[in-house]
Amino acid sequence: MLGKQAEACFEFLLKQSKRYRLLAANTQIQGETQTLGELDYLVFDTKTNKTLHIELACKFYLFDDRLGPSYEAKWIGPNRKDRLQEKLDKVKEKQFPLLHASETAAILEGLKLDVNTIEQQVCIKSFLFIPKNFNIEKFPKQYQDCVLGTYIPFLEFESEENPEAQFAIPDKKQWLLPPKNLTEWFSFSEAEERVSVLIHLKKSPLVYKKQKGKLEKFFVVWW
């Protein structure tokens, strides 16, 4: 869902770019009996005169310091179903090697591309959330730049109560929308009721809170 939205935006930007020329998008690689996978984008960089194979992903991750030893291992999806480390491993072990598969050769030949001259890159558009009151300066700069908000457990959501505040709880398909495009805003009691239902379903909602011109963005987690 989010991936398709990100792909549409990414492809639009490529087509508008004066530097990059889109050669192919979402190219499926077929084996004898099944689809082996897909090459997201083949792009020519007119500035460097290089052909690029770009794998794109759009992810929302929350930082859990209890997880693995590396920064990549500590970022996990809001519902704990996927991790940044797993995504990077998939790109390295499955998606990048697909370019060099024998089944891909005919497609590259049709595009008049030499596989040995193609540079591979991964673009992960990440929206990162950290525990409330966590020191963001502990992260490397590239992670700091992607932090958009915080997350709290449901039991702490009560501390957000304020009669002057309004809350929005967008569906996942709306997570990439600017807050000004959200049309449903609720009082705290209405928001708490809706959040409670999602928490019992083990779904961690994204919540916007606006008050006196100030806007906050956070997840309420069930775990």
TrEMBL record:
Q: Name one Pfam family in it.
A: DUF1853
Q: Which superkingdom does the taxonomy of this entry point to?
A: Bacteria
| InterPro entries (UniProt xref) | DUF1853
Q: Can you name this protein? A: DUF1853 domain-containing protein
Lineage of the organism? Bacteria, Pseudomonadati, Bacteroidota, Flavobacteriia, Flavobacteriales
